[in-house]
């Protein structure tokens, strides 16, 4: 039995997972049956063209006229090619519309008002960053859309206009929020109009509220919201001036809170978050991150320490998501408390927490078997041995970011152990300031015939020394599900580590080796050979580094990585026009290519553009950055080579269909 033997209803269920471009370009060219099914009304109930900048009225209007009565959802966010004619067609043909996303479009107030009047069944509306919709037009929403449940809006007002009309602006938005009786989700992030007075009457049924970057909201406004919205589940007040006083009101009134985001709230400390943790026992998602130390700030902006993490461990055992990026007060003790108590932890970000070491990874490996995403970037004490153990035991890990971890070198992901490895945190030595190399062995020699042991802990400033030999009762090799791996600027990563990653992580879709200047064509060859699903690959480097990658890398990628969509080669100095042309002719799926042109890179912008256009036809080349070496380093002697302008160019082109 083949797919062509399936019934029409079953095929339509499968085809619903395809976007409209695949329906038009792929299904209709397969066979007569699929061509006929591609016009079925069930496939066109949801028109999703988000970010499709090339969408025009001539493409959009026929769909509305033919399928208008059955269309229930339209998403044209970012489609700036649609004008008043297209917006008026929505109100004319789509009377059964339930969801409408117009964010970042040029819709005018009159067209929006007409949509509200003609499409009264709309339940979800997104008008985020629609600059031509004035605040006066929004007053019609409660009257026309009485069943509205989700609303997302951003209005940036002219400062002078806001000062002169402040009372009327506040009145309009206050009435809007008060009269939308069915509203359960409200997103007002970064809106200029949001002040405490807006929420004076409250929103009784509200379950989700996003006030991110709304600097006009104070503790008094939060008090009005918390008192009237006792059913609130999701609250985002990041990048505001809320203090511990506001957090205390939230903890008393919003006891059913499950998601809380107070990231970069510099007035919120351990005291405020601990009060929430004491009273909101259903909390599953908590974001308290500040800015990481790599953001060139003189001090950390995260006020959270191990005190908060230990309270969370005691009162919020259902915690699944925790982000403490840039919180220098978070150490191994806090992470150990969280991992021990919160067995359902799935996402952890400790980026820039400088005290995090292998002890945290060991605790995660032993306790957090549900872990799916981990960010340990800029945790400079983390070593290869800790990461090896983590990936070995956390078999559900899909996303791993380990940027700027310079002690990562000897990665060994080649075996999966289901039994707990017999080592404890007490066996982790104190920091060795000399950075000596240690050799440790995790598995006994009797198991060497079954799998390759982790035989080297790598150079470390605080890593494992002679990991003990455990009593392994049961070993089982299981496939690795890691799909996103970021090793950017891990300066000791070389071909041997890349070979291990390629052999073990064959499900990789996103891989970043930015700044890993020790990696050569040999390492990328292993990636191309084993990682057949790879879609995004970053091989760029900084201008102070010299990449060792050549046209051989491009040849390997072109011949083996048939799913590759995005390739970043910024500051690659050993690539030629021939290699780029070969890549374009053989890598059918490639849609974005980042290149640096100039004398230093031996690539001429005009020649490269001609080569790409001859292979792909029309393309869009956008200059991302221009650098004049003589202006950047004025002390260098003036010469034609040094003074040459360098350009970072991002090429975008449609996917070329293979014959």
Automatic annotation (TrEMBL):
Name assigned to this protein: F-box/LRR-repeat protein 7-like
Keywords: Ubl conjugation pathway
Record domain F-box: where: 1-47
SUPFAM superfamilies per record: F-box domain (SSF81383), L domain-like (SSF52058), RNI-like (SSF52047)
A Pfam family of this chain: DUF7885
Cellular component GO terms held in the UniProt record: cytoplasm
């Amino acid at each position: 039995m083949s797919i062509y033997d399936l019934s029409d209803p079953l095929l339509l269920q499968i085809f619903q997972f395809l976007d409209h471009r695949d329906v038009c370009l792929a299904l209709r060219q397969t066979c007569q049956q699929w061509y006929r099914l591609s016009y079925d009304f069930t496939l066109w109930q949801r028109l999703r063209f988000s970010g499709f900048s090339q969408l025009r009225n001539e493409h959009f209007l026929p769909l509305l006229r033919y399928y208008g009565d059955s269309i229930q959802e339209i998403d044209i966010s970012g489609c700036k090619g649609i004008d008043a004619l297209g917006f008026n067609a929505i109100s004319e043909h789509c009377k059964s519309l339930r969801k409408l996303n117009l964010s970042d479009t040029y819709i005018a107030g009159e067209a929006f008002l007409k949509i509200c009047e003609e499409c009264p069944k709309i339940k979800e509306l997104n008008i985020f960053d629609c600059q031509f919709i004035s605040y006066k037009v929004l007053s019609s929403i409660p009257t026309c859309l009485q069943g509205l449940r989700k609303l997302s809006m951003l209005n940036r007002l002219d400062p002078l206009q806001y000062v002169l009309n402040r009372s009327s602006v506040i009145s309009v938005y206050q009435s809007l929020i008060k009269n939308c009786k069915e509203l359960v989700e409200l997103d007002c992030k970064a809106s200029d109009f949001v002040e405490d007075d807006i929420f004076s009457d409250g929103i009784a049924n509200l379950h989700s509220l996003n006030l991110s970057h709304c600097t006009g909201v104070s503790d008094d406004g939060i008090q009005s919201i918390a008192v009237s919205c006792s059913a609130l589940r999701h609250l985002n007040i990041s990048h505001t001036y809320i203090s511990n006083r506001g957090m205390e009101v939230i903890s008393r009134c919003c006891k059913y809170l499950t998601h809380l985001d107070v990231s970069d709230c510099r007035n919120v400390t351990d005291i405020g978050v601990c009060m929430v943790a004491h009273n909101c026992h259903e909390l599953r998602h908590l974001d308290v991150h500040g800015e990481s130390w790599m953001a060139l700030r003189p001090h950390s902006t995260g006020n959270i320490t191990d005190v908060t993490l230990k309270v969370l461990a005691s009162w919020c055992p259902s915690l699944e998501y925790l982000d403490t990026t840039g919180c220098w007060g978070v150490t191994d003790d806090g992470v150990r408390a969280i991992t021990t108590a919160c067995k359902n932890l799935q996402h952890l970000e400790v980026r820039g927490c400088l005290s995090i070491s292998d002890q945290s990874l060991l605790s995660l490996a032993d306790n957090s078997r549900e872990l799916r995403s981990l960010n340990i970037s800029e945790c400079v004490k983390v070593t290869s041995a800790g990461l090896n153990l983590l990936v070995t035991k956390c078999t559900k890990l899909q996303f791993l970011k380990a940027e700027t971890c310079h002690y990562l070198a000897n990665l060994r992901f080649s075996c999966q152990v289901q039994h707990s490895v017999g080592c404890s945190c007490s066996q982790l030595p104190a920091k060795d300031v000399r950075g000596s190399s240690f050799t440790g062995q995790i598995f006994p020699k009797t198991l060497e015939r079954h799998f390759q042991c982790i035989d080297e802990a790598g150079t470390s400033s605080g890593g494992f020394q002679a990991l003990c030999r455990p009593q392994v009762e049961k070993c089982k090799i299981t496939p690795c599900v890691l799909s996103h791996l970021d090793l950017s600027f891990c300066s000791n990563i070389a071909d041997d580590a890349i070979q291990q990653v390629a052999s073990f992580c064959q499900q990789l879709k996103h891989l970043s080796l930015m700044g890993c200047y020790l990696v050569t064509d040999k390492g990328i060859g292993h990636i191309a050979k084993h990682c057949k699903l790879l879609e995004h690959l970053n091989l760029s480097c900084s201008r102070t580094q010299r990449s060792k990658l050549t046209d051989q890398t491009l040849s390997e990628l072109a011949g083996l990585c048939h799913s590759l969509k995005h390739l970043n080669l910024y500051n690659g100095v050993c690539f030629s026009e021939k290699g780029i042309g070969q890549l374009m002719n053989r890598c059918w799926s490639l849609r974005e290519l980042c290149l640096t042109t100039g004398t230093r890179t031996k690539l001429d912008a005009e020649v490269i553009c001609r080569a790409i256009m001859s292979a792909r036809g029309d393309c869009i080349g956008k200059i991302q950055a221009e650098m004049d070496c003589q202006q950047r380093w004025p002390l260098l002697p003036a010469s034609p080579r040094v003074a040459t302008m360098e350009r970072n160019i991002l090429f975008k082109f449609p996917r070329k269909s293979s014959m």
